[in-house]
Amino acid sequence: MSIAEVHDITVTRRPLVPPAPPRAPDDMGAFERMRVMRNSPIETWGQRAYEDDIVQGRFLGRSSFILNTPDAIRHVLVDNYENYTRTPAGIRVLRPMLGEGLLIAEGRAWKHQRRTLAPAFTPRAVTTLVPSMIAAVDETIAKLKAASGGPVDLREVMQRMTLEIAGRTMFSFGMDRHGAALRDFVMEYGDTLARPHMLDLVLPLSWPTPQDFRRARFRKRWTAFVGQLMAERRATGKDDNAPARDLFDLMGAARDPETGEAFTDAQLGDQVATMILAGHETTATALFWALYLLALDPETQEQLAAEVRSVTTSGALDIERLKFTRAVIDETMRLYPPAFLIARAAGGPDTIAGRPVRKHDVILIAPWLLHRHEKLWRDPNAFVPQRFMAETPPDRFAYLPFGVGARVCIGAHFALVEATLALARMIGTFRVALADKDPVLPIGVVTTQPNRSPVFTIKPR
């Protein structure tokens, strides 16, 4: 049975098809592709990329392969993953914000970091952080209730809320004093330095581009800010006999199970930056998209609210019973994957699906394409949460909101718990609607972001 047949979901009404960017002409020229890519790589993909198993082409003198088959993706991300590393352009864009943290590291350094961090992100460890999540969500809801009830920018609200959760779960303190500065850093980098220029793509990593010099100046300020947060947390002290209070305690106490090594201060700073940025920004964006979809689809919104009522006892949510809410989160991340593109460079020759790959060839695995591929999903552009409640789940290599294989996102469970709880609390409390009817389109700038922040209205239930 094909994946499409497995997910032949029958619905009683016409499902919502949210607005999406126009697809590029399949014969788009290289210079036009570069121009469009500066705004959003999502807009450079034509219809073939949503239909073909593999799209082979050439870009800047190298062969490129877009992989849309689970077997080929498994080969690159699992079976032979050590042969495929981040591209120079990807490293240039991410390193100034994340340093040599888990998301960037390769080889032995990555293995050390992954082994050392793993205990801090087990389901049991995440459970200890749930009260901090709930407290931040409930405070956000209380502020919304106390407001006048007028129009609200829920994207900004979700960013503030997830940043507060990041601060409390990382450092055991809120982000009232530091939140504005952190958001400014994120916005500055996204607006000016996260979009690759031509020289970022063509020059070797060892040759700095003009953007790299600007990124280096940014990194100096950014690392000083992260160091300030760490110093403030350390000033609160820690009882060596007490259990860990937060992720900072867990990461500081972590030791590589094979070598016994702890993180250096610089390494710990890069991990803190990675967890705060990767955690709060991607979860905030996923929650925004979920609220946007539910505002466009009131019937699904009411179904979610009914589930929340049914699993709430004395004000407490049973997250294990929030099956439909979790399906909404899953479907949201299918339509708007947090990471829209995984780019890898071949470290040596290989063969993928019978096609020869040479050293330095570029392999593209695009969750944006994969999650909307016409051979893998029925009604691929429609919002159908029920597809994630089917007896047979999607193929593990056709649905990649957190990646897959050895480098699967270490914070996936944390993010899913946070997003499910937050969405349940929000929709259980408010009826959400859009105040304007102009479409919101996704653009790809590191993550799948909206091209604008629409105005919402919320009414207490």
TrEMBL record:
Cofactor(s) the record lists: heme
Comp. bias regions, Basic and acidic residues: 1-11
Domain of life (superkingdom): Bacteria
Alphabetical UniProt keywords: Heme, Iron, Metal-binding, Monooxygenase, Oxidoreductase
Family matches, as PROSITE patterns: CYTOCHROME_P450 (PS00086)
InterPro entries: Cyt_P450, Cyt_P450_CS, Cyt_P450_E_grp-I, Cyt_P450_sf, Cytochrome_P450_monoxygenase
PANTHER family per the UniProt record, alphabetical: CYTOCHROME P450, CYTOCHROME P450 12A4, MITOCHONDRIAL-RELATED
Protein name per Swiss-Prot or TrEMBL: Cytochrome P450
Organism: Bradyrhizobium quebecense
